[in-house]
Amino acid sequence: MTHIAATASSPTQPAEAFPTTLAKGFVNRLVIIIPYLWLLFFFLVPFIIVFKISLSQTAISMPPYTPVLDFKDGVSGFFAGFRALNFDNYTWLTQDALYFNAYVTSLIIAAISTVLTLIVGYPIAYGMARAPATVRPTLLMLVILPFWTSFLIRVYAWIGILKPEGLLNQVLLATGLISQPLVILNTYTAIFIGIVYSYLPFMVLPLYSSLEKMDYSLVEAAEDLGCPPIGAFWKITFPLSLPGVVAGCLLVFIPAVGEFVIPDLLGGSQTLMIGKTLWNEFFSNRDWPVSSAVAVILLLVLTIPIMFFQQAQAKAQEQGR
Amino acid sequence: MTSTWSRFNITSIVLGFAFLYLPIVLLIVFSFNESKLVTVWGGFSTKWYVSLFHNQGLMDATWVTARVGVISATAATVLGTLAAITLTRYTRFKGRVLFSGMVFAPLVMPEVITGLSLLLLFVAVGLDRGFFTVTLAHITFTMCFVAVVVQSRLVSFDRSLEEAAMDLGAPPVKTFFQITLPVILPAIISGWMLAFTLSLDDLVIASFTSGPGATTLPMKIYSQVRLGVTPEINAACTILIAVVAVGVIIASIANKRREIQRQLDEQAAQRG
Predict the structure, then answer these.
(1) CB contact under 8 A, A321 and B155
(2) N or C: which end of chain B has fewer CB within 10 A?
(3) 3-state SS of chain B?
(4) What is the per-residue pLDDT across B61-72, written as a single tens digit (0 to 9) for each?
(5) Nearest to B88 among A15, A38, A132 (CB)
């Protein structure tokens, strides 16, 4: 974020040319104001409401919570509401070990899956970047294509593969590699497979774009000077691809922490993740204040990675100029 | 740069793509299975596709999803393009940091948070949940993806074309529609398609913000998947995949043609 602020104040910014030539004018201001107001109202304001409701009490009514901080009873009512605010829902979250475990498990699962996705994605991105230039656009399209097919469908496809009587077990039994069907569905292993599979394009694309820009004569120079290929990889290729690694990891890690579909369909009832907890709290228990509190804490946990992500995006945007 | 197409590189690509595509291929294959079991092959049949078209609930959901998708993608494309222009062209205005934050954060925001917060907003302002609220929710989260796609085209845009037009006396709005828009059009089209498919796919945000009478296709599929895997769902998924694949292929061919045409035009212009 500081990056944007810094360039914004530089007077020699070429991007200024367009706005200054048509700086005056209503149209100009409209271009900024319309998306700005939309995002303020539909993205920022909702978070404030979530926070507000996380401080209210569950009630049997529609909507199922006691009103807090509104002006229905005038200003005095508003201040009375202030006194009625309470952090009971947050105390509740700390008292029940279920929530704490769900947060920690989600962070661990997301971290492990991110590393696994990096390990699976790096060779693919590297192979694509080193492919003949004529083949690269096709390979790129092939990586993007699964991203266009439904997330739900791709997760669903794995149920048929991982089931005890599923295709993977059939193949392994037929080849004699195992004698007992493996239990994969409804375990954490299935969640790892699901996350790696679903998020792979998010990892490969940023990796590819930083590997493709790399100057491979550096690697050749190192090898000419006697550096073994593996050494050259760790000393040159990997450090130079670091922006892609960071972007890819954040694109996988942040949404994976709050993932719902994958733990729900592949993880079964025995696995614990916070996205599923929030969903159940909301849809099964109909406890809106507690699910709001769960969301507020989740957002706080993710604030730092999200800020890193925005900084990386802003930097990429500056470099694109 | 010289590229070495080594055996290691080829192996990793082949394995990688096998991993990406095999589950989808298997899903499609088993949608043509005669047997009711999804994992045992019982001969070729298209009966699941026939029964699909007699499933009224599924057909209604498809119709809802298509309408939500078209409306939200169109609105998101307009808003997202405006946001992209703001991000690339206006480097100093009050609240720019907040603005770029609001554009980038939804890209990684867990869907459960976005869904819950939008629902609570709709309840707070007294909007009845249904078709309208799902559409609003989809516009909000897809416009940020459109903004990123269009923005990446705008940053590589040759600004001198606009300057030339304005030097020749074209007013800014006319310059935008005659010069800028045609150049960034491929990005806008792919932005629209991305928004449409994201809307088509979304389960979590739709589940939170939808109400009675506005069940979308993913919600329908999800509720059936929870009851068990059936070839009928495989068939529904296959149709969905086919629709998206055909759309993507048509769009990329059209894009390529436009690109070639543009290059020819530029060459012709340079020859004068």
Answers:
(1) yes
(2) C
(3) CCCCCCHHHHHHHHHHHHHHHHHHHHHHHHCCECCCCCCCCCCECCHHHHHHHCCHHHHHHHHHHHHHHHHHHHHHHHHHHHHHHHHHHCCCCCCHHHHHHHHHHHHHCCHHHHHHHHHHHHHHCCCCCCHHHHHHHHHHHHHHHHHHHHHHHHHCCCCHHHHHHHHCCCCHHHHHHHHHHHHHHHHHHHHHHHHHHHHHHCCHHHHHHCCCCCCCHHHHHHHHHCCCCCHHHHHHHHHHHHHHHHHHHHHHHHHHHHHHHHHHHHHHHHHC
(4) 989 999 999 999
(5) A15
Residue B229: is its pLDDT beyond 50? yes
Residue-wise burial string across A140-165, b where 16 or more C-beta atoms lie within 10 A, e elsewhere = bebbebbbbbbbbbbbbbbbbbbbee
Please give the structure tokens belonging to residue B168.
């020749």
| Banded model confidence at residue A207, pLDDT cuts 50, 70, 90 | very high
- Asked whether the predicted pLDDT for residue A157 surpasses 80, the reply is yes
Residue B36 pLDDT: 75
Are the beta carbons of B103 and B144 closer than 8 angstroms?
yes
Q: Nearest by CB to B90, which of A32, A146, A254?
A: A32
How far off is chain B from A115, nearest CA to CA, in Å?
A: 16
What residue in A sits closest to B235 (Cα-Cα)?
Answer: A153
Contact: A258, B90; criterion CB under 8 Å: no
Of B203, B95, B195, nearest to B148 (Cα)?
B195
CB contact under 8 A, B12 and A123: yes
Give the domains, in start order, of chain A with CATH numbers. Answer: 89-320 (1.10.3720.10)
**Which residue has 């554009």 as its token pair?**
B103
Residues of B in contact with A149 (CB under 8 A): 24, 240-241, 244-245
- Put simply, whether the predicted model's pTM sits higher than 0.90 gets the answer no
Q: Which of A37-41, A286-290, B34-38, B83-87 is predicted least confidently? A: B34-38
> pLDDT digit string (tens) for B150-203?
988 888 777 888 888 888 888 888 888 888 888 888 889 889 988 998 898 899
Question: Is the CB of A149 less than 8 angstroms away from the CB of B104?
Answer: no
**CB distance from B159 to chain A under 8 Å?**
yes
Domains of chain B, first to last: 55-233 (1.10.3720.10)
- What ipTM was estimated for this complex? 0.84
Please state the length of chain B. 272
